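One such shown below:
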Amino acid sequence: MLSGFQNIARVPELKRRILMTGLLLVVYRIGIHIPTPGINNIALKSVFDSQAGTLFGLIDMFSGGALARFSIFTLGIMPYISASIILQLLTVVIPQLEKLSKEGELGRRKITQYTRYGTIVLSIIQGMGIAVGLESVTSGGAGSVVYIPGWSFRLMTVLTLTSGTAFLMWLGEQITERGIGNGISLIIFAGIVARFPSGLVRTVTLVRTGEMNIFSALFLLALMIAVIGVIIFFERAHRRIPVQYARRIVGRRVYGGQSTHLPLKVNTAGVIPPIFASSILLFPATIANFITHPVTKTISDALTPGRFAYESLYVAFIIFFCYFYTAVTFNPVDVAENMKKYGGFVPGIRPGKKTAEYIDKILTRITLGGALYVAVICVLPSILIARFNVPFYFGGTGLLIVVGVAMDTIQQIESHLITRHYEGFLKKGQMKGRRG
């Protein structure tokens, strides 16, 4: 693996792409510390310390701490992700969008354009909602969070936050085009990873002061390595369905006749299910902070992370959304029809409807395993905090994103090296990301 990293410096284009990616990510991290005008940061910090178990805490994780500082990147890249998911779901419902998605590069560009428009619209709505909500928030000793409430503050906040999200969207596209890896994913990756050092420092401090046993710290380290290994294994795991293509003679040429396979990923839905599940379960706790009522308080207390009710519903929602999102993004009927169109068939299975039923049966089984894997990883932080007094969240959606993005980025770097006749990071075989 060390020789693989040494070979990076021998490929000028790859070295330039990595440096460009690093430079653009530094720009992103600098923007995290630029505050939005009109905000009392001292009052905001004291208020935000009590929001760790709400939807604001989840948004702050994906924004890399920008929400707690209320910087120009407060909304982060979440509006873009939301717009992408909405368009992906609408593609299944609206025939025009479904037709557009099958028109190749031209259709992809059109959908990307619609995604950008949707991102701006969502940013304006979210920015206005946050601005109006902050005007009524006060801190005990620090006073109001907003210095001068009113339409001037609202319009300035909407303009600032929308511009910040649009800049991040452009930054992500530049990383994808001129750098290495997926730009949007790397921005989320950088925001989550930026929190790891502080958690490590807190753990070392606990060991030094004697609040955490050294053996507990070593066990925690071993557990971290094991969990990362499990995530890598499951993100690369897929079920191969053998596919045989019949020979076709067109003129003097013979097409087909080869054997291949159809890879079905164990975790087809990725990190979308835990994001959806977290958003739904944390919504009551967020509402309870603005509406003082016994009912909302009771629901909020029951759905606090770490409680049995919350964790049980969290697992149930993850399993549900794994099946739901897999059904939306993967259509066995279309796959079977495309195989039949090009003369492909699964040995022992009739082409067409029977093949679709066979693929759907296998996909249903492996999705259950993938859903249980995602659920275990996502409830891991609550177990570690309750049992081992871990001072930071290890596991969950953040870790799934970090490991997955790291795998995809390393896979792209290795592809550049192998294309230019250099050895990759692995001596035997080739590094495969989540798309493998």
